[in-house]
Amino acid sequence: MIKTVLEDSGIDPERFAIDWVSSAEAPRFAEVVTAFTEKIRAMGPCEADARLQAAN
User: Alpha-carbon dihedral of residues 4, 18, 46, 53, nearest 10 degrees?
Assistant: First the structure.
């Protein structure tokens, strides 16, 4: 549902992720966050953000 709302708003749904990590899994948490951060950086700036800034 969230990905559909993002897509309808002009935001690439791949910019959203949800993953379960227990408080006892600190190394896994670091891996999940690092992987997602790398993915977002590789995607570049959010197009919807650029459109919003251009409107101002």
Answer: 80
Answer yes or no: are the C-beta atoms of 10 and 51 closer than 8 Å: yes
Alpha-carbon distance 7 to 46, whole Å?
A: 12
Q: Where are the domains of the chain?
A: 2-55
Per-residue pLDDT tens over the stretch 9-26: 889 999 999 999 999 999
Residue 5 Rama label (left phi>0; alpha psi -120 to 50; beta): alpha
d(CA 56, CA 54): 5
pLDDT digits (tens, 9 = 90+) for 30-53: 999 999 999 999 999 988 766 666
